[in-house]
Design goal:
4 strands; Glutathione S-transferase Yfyf (Class Pi), Chain A, domain 2; 9 helices; Glutaredoxin; alpha+beta
Length: 230
Protein backbone atom coordinates (compact mmCIF):
# COMPACT_ATOMS: atom_id res chain seq x y z
CA UNK A 1 0.00 0.00 0.00
CA UNK A 2 1.32 3.43 -0.94
CA UNK A 3 1.17 6.69 0.92
CA UNK A 4 -2.05 8.60 1.59
CA UNK A 5 -2.70 11.03 -1.29
CA UNK A 6 -2.20 14.69 -0.46
CA UNK A 7 -3.60 17.91 -1.85
CA UNK A 8 -1.55 21.03 -1.22
CA UNK A 9 -4.00 23.90 -1.37
CA UNK A 10 -5.18 27.29 -0.22
CA UNK A 11 -8.55 27.09 1.49
CA UNK A 12 -9.85 30.14 -0.38
CA UNK A 13 -8.45 29.27 -3.81
CA UNK A 14 -11.13 28.65 -6.50
CA UNK A 15 -8.85 26.29 -8.43
CA UNK A 16 -8.24 24.25 -5.30
CA UNK A 17 -11.97 23.99 -4.59
CA UNK A 18 -12.56 22.50 -8.03
CA UNK A 19 -10.26 19.64 -7.12
CA UNK A 20 -11.25 19.30 -3.47
CA UNK A 21 -14.95 19.15 -4.36
CA UNK A 22 -14.25 16.26 -6.72
CA UNK A 23 -12.19 14.36 -4.14
CA UNK A 24 -15.01 14.82 -1.63
CA UNK A 25 -17.59 13.62 -4.15
CA UNK A 26 -15.52 10.51 -4.88
CA UNK A 27 -15.07 9.84 -1.15
CA UNK A 28 -11.30 9.74 -1.49
CA UNK A 29 -9.01 9.47 1.51
CA UNK A 30 -6.94 12.61 0.97
CA UNK A 31 -4.83 14.67 3.35
CA UNK A 32 -5.49 18.35 2.69
CA UNK A 33 -2.39 20.43 3.34
CA UNK A 34 -2.81 24.17 3.66
CA UNK A 35 0.16 26.17 2.43
CA UNK A 36 1.34 29.60 3.50
CA UNK A 37 0.01 32.04 0.92
CA UNK A 38 3.19 34.10 1.18
CA UNK A 39 5.45 31.07 0.63
CA UNK A 40 3.62 28.98 -1.98
CA UNK A 41 6.59 28.45 -4.31
CA UNK A 42 8.74 27.24 -1.44
CA UNK A 43 6.11 24.89 -0.01
CA UNK A 44 5.34 23.23 -3.36
CA UNK A 45 8.94 23.28 -4.64
CA UNK A 46 8.78 19.48 -4.84
CA UNK A 47 6.48 19.93 -7.86
CA UNK A 48 9.20 21.59 -9.91
CA UNK A 49 8.68 24.97 -11.54
CA UNK A 50 4.87 24.96 -11.15
CA UNK A 51 4.94 27.22 -8.09
CA UNK A 52 1.16 27.24 -7.60
CA UNK A 53 -1.63 25.30 -5.94
CA UNK A 54 -3.36 22.89 -6.15
CA UNK A 55 -0.77 20.12 -6.23
CA UNK A 56 -2.00 16.54 -5.85
CA UNK A 57 0.38 13.74 -4.88
CA UNK A 58 -0.87 10.20 -5.38
CA UNK A 59 -0.17 6.96 -3.54
CA UNK A 60 2.85 6.37 -5.75
CA UNK A 61 4.42 9.70 -4.80
CA UNK A 62 3.93 11.22 -8.25
CA UNK A 63 2.37 14.68 -8.36
CA UNK A 64 -0.14 16.25 -10.73
CA UNK A 65 -0.73 20.01 -11.10
CA UNK A 66 -3.17 22.43 -12.75
CA UNK A 67 -6.79 22.15 -11.65
CA UNK A 68 -8.58 21.02 -14.83
CA UNK A 69 -5.99 18.40 -15.88
CA UNK A 70 -5.94 17.34 -12.22
CA UNK A 71 -9.71 16.81 -12.21
CA UNK A 72 -9.43 14.73 -15.39
CA UNK A 73 -6.64 12.71 -13.74
CA UNK A 74 -8.70 12.05 -10.61
CA UNK A 75 -11.70 10.98 -12.65
CA UNK A 76 -9.55 8.64 -14.76
CA UNK A 77 -7.59 7.18 -11.83
CA UNK A 78 -10.21 6.94 -9.09
CA UNK A 79 -13.51 6.90 -10.99
CA UNK A 80 -12.80 4.84 -14.08
CA UNK A 81 -13.11 7.93 -16.28
CA UNK A 82 -16.90 7.89 -15.87
CA UNK A 83 -17.31 11.67 -15.84
CA UNK A 84 -15.14 12.22 -18.90
CA UNK A 85 -17.27 9.65 -20.72
CA UNK A 86 -20.58 11.36 -19.90
CA UNK A 87 -22.33 12.97 -22.85
CA UNK A 88 -20.58 14.62 -25.76
CA UNK A 89 -16.81 14.98 -25.28
CA UNK A 90 -16.55 18.15 -27.40
CA UNK A 91 -19.38 19.79 -25.44
CA UNK A 92 -17.71 18.93 -22.16
CA UNK A 93 -14.34 20.32 -23.29
CA UNK A 94 -15.97 23.49 -24.63
CA UNK A 95 -17.65 24.22 -21.31
CA UNK A 96 -14.64 23.29 -19.22
CA UNK A 97 -12.71 25.85 -21.26
CA UNK A 98 -15.58 28.32 -20.83
CA UNK A 99 -15.53 27.95 -17.05
CA UNK A 100 -11.76 28.36 -16.87
CA UNK A 101 -11.78 31.37 -19.18
CA UNK A 102 -14.77 33.22 -17.74
CA UNK A 103 -15.86 32.06 -14.29
CA UNK A 104 -12.34 31.94 -12.89
CA UNK A 105 -11.92 35.63 -13.72
CA UNK A 106 -15.25 36.53 -12.06
CA UNK A 107 -14.10 35.51 -8.58
CA UNK A 108 -11.75 38.49 -8.16
CA UNK A 109 -14.32 41.21 -9.02
CA UNK A 110 -16.95 39.86 -6.63
CA UNK A 111 -14.50 39.46 -3.75
CA UNK A 112 -12.48 42.65 -4.31
CA UNK A 113 -14.76 44.82 -6.46
CA UNK A 114 -15.09 47.59 -3.89
CA UNK A 115 -12.66 48.87 -1.29
CA UNK A 116 -14.88 47.65 1.54
CA UNK A 117 -15.36 44.21 -0.03
CA UNK A 118 -11.62 43.89 -0.61
CA UNK A 119 -10.87 44.64 3.06
CA UNK A 120 -13.45 42.08 4.23
CA UNK A 121 -11.97 39.51 1.86
CA UNK A 122 -8.31 39.93 2.80
CA UNK A 123 -9.22 40.00 6.50
CA UNK A 124 -11.21 36.77 6.12
CA UNK A 125 -8.44 35.11 4.11
CA UNK A 126 -5.87 36.06 6.75
CA UNK A 127 -7.95 34.11 9.30
CA UNK A 128 -8.65 31.09 7.10
CA UNK A 129 -5.26 30.54 5.53
CA UNK A 130 -1.94 29.48 7.04
CA UNK A 131 0.12 32.61 7.69
CA UNK A 132 2.88 33.57 10.07
CA UNK A 133 2.16 36.17 12.78
CA UNK A 134 3.44 39.13 10.78
CA UNK A 135 2.52 37.93 7.30
CA UNK A 136 -1.12 37.49 8.41
CA UNK A 137 -1.37 41.16 9.35
CA UNK A 138 0.61 42.27 6.32
CA UNK A 139 -1.74 40.41 3.98
CA UNK A 140 -4.91 41.62 5.71
CA UNK A 141 -3.98 45.30 5.64
CA UNK A 142 -1.65 45.65 2.68
CA UNK A 143 -3.29 43.13 0.36
CA UNK A 144 -6.72 44.68 -0.02
CA UNK A 145 -5.72 47.98 -1.71
CA UNK A 146 -3.58 46.05 -4.18
CA UNK A 147 -6.31 43.54 -5.05
CA UNK A 148 -8.94 46.28 -5.34
CA UNK A 149 -6.94 49.09 -6.87
CA UNK A 150 -4.74 47.18 -9.30
CA UNK A 151 -6.64 44.01 -10.23
CA UNK A 152 -10.36 44.02 -9.40
CA UNK A 153 -11.20 47.59 -10.40
CA UNK A 154 -9.55 47.10 -13.78
CA UNK A 155 -11.53 43.92 -14.46
CA UNK A 156 -14.83 45.49 -13.41
CA UNK A 157 -14.20 48.53 -15.61
CA UNK A 158 -13.20 46.37 -18.58
CA UNK A 159 -16.28 44.13 -18.29
CA UNK A 160 -18.75 46.94 -17.67
CA UNK A 161 -21.06 44.90 -15.42
CA UNK A 162 -21.29 44.94 -11.66
CA UNK A 163 -19.71 41.84 -10.07
CA UNK A 164 -23.19 40.61 -9.09
CA UNK A 165 -24.56 41.00 -12.62
CA UNK A 166 -21.51 39.28 -14.06
CA UNK A 167 -22.01 36.27 -11.79
CA UNK A 168 -25.74 36.14 -12.44
CA UNK A 169 -25.12 36.18 -16.19
CA UNK A 170 -22.57 33.36 -15.87
CA UNK A 171 -24.89 31.26 -13.71
CA UNK A 172 -27.71 31.80 -16.19
CA UNK A 173 -25.53 30.86 -19.16
CA UNK A 174 -24.42 27.73 -17.31
CA UNK A 175 -27.80 26.55 -15.99
CA UNK A 176 -29.43 27.16 -19.38
CA UNK A 177 -27.21 24.33 -20.65
CA UNK A 178 -28.82 21.82 -18.28
CA UNK A 179 -31.83 21.32 -20.54
CA UNK A 180 -34.17 20.90 -17.58
CA UNK A 181 -31.98 18.19 -16.04
CA UNK A 182 -30.50 18.40 -12.52
CA UNK A 183 -26.91 18.89 -13.68
CA UNK A 184 -24.90 19.93 -16.71
CA UNK A 185 -23.95 16.26 -16.96
CA UNK A 186 -27.60 15.20 -16.92
CA UNK A 187 -28.90 13.03 -14.09
CA UNK A 188 -25.45 13.08 -12.47
CA UNK A 189 -22.77 15.79 -12.31
CA UNK A 190 -19.82 15.69 -14.68
CA UNK A 191 -16.47 17.48 -14.77
CA UNK A 192 -18.05 20.74 -15.94
CA UNK A 193 -20.39 20.69 -12.93
CA UNK A 194 -17.44 20.27 -10.58
CA UNK A 195 -15.40 22.98 -12.27
CA UNK A 196 -18.29 25.45 -11.97
CA UNK A 197 -19.09 24.26 -8.46
CA UNK A 198 -15.50 24.76 -7.31
CA UNK A 199 -15.44 28.35 -8.54
CA UNK A 200 -18.82 29.08 -6.94
CA UNK A 201 -17.98 27.30 -3.71
CA UNK A 202 -14.83 29.36 -3.29
CA UNK A 203 -17.05 32.43 -2.76
CA UNK A 204 -19.09 30.77 0.01
CA UNK A 205 -16.77 31.61 2.96
CA UNK A 206 -17.24 35.33 2.25
CA UNK A 207 -20.19 37.68 2.85
CA UNK A 208 -20.27 38.44 -0.90
CA UNK A 209 -21.82 34.99 -1.45
CA UNK A 210 -25.17 36.60 -0.61
CA UNK A 211 -24.95 38.38 -3.98
CA UNK A 212 -25.37 34.99 -5.66
CA UNK A 213 -28.12 33.65 -3.44
CA UNK A 214 -31.02 35.26 -5.32
CA UNK A 215 -30.11 33.45 -8.54
CA UNK A 216 -32.74 30.76 -8.12
CA UNK A 217 -31.62 28.19 -10.70
CA UNK A 218 -27.99 28.64 -9.76
CA UNK A 219 -28.62 28.07 -6.07
CA UNK A 220 -30.88 25.06 -6.67
CA UNK A 221 -28.06 23.50 -8.70
CA UNK A 222 -25.48 24.55 -6.07
CA UNK A 223 -27.43 22.84 -3.28
CA UNK A 224 -27.77 19.72 -5.44
CA UNK A 225 -24.00 19.72 -5.85
CA UNK A 226 -23.50 20.08 -2.09
CA UNK A 227 -25.70 17.02 -1.69
CA UNK A 228 -23.34 14.93 -3.85
CA UNK A 229 -20.37 15.38 -1.48
CA UNK A 230 -19.33 12.57 0.85
Amino acid sequence: MGQTPTLHMLYTCPFCWKVRSLTEHLGMDVEYIGVNGMKIKKEVAFAGDWGKVPVFTGEDGNYVVDSTPLMIHLDATYNGGKMAAMGDAERQKKWLDWADANVSKATVPILYGTLGAALKTTTRISKLEKFGFFSKRLYAWAGFPIMWGIIARKRVKKDGRTPKQLWHDLLTEFTDQHGGKPFFGGAEPDLVDFAMFGYTRSISPFPQFKLLEDHEKGMVWYQRMMGTLQ
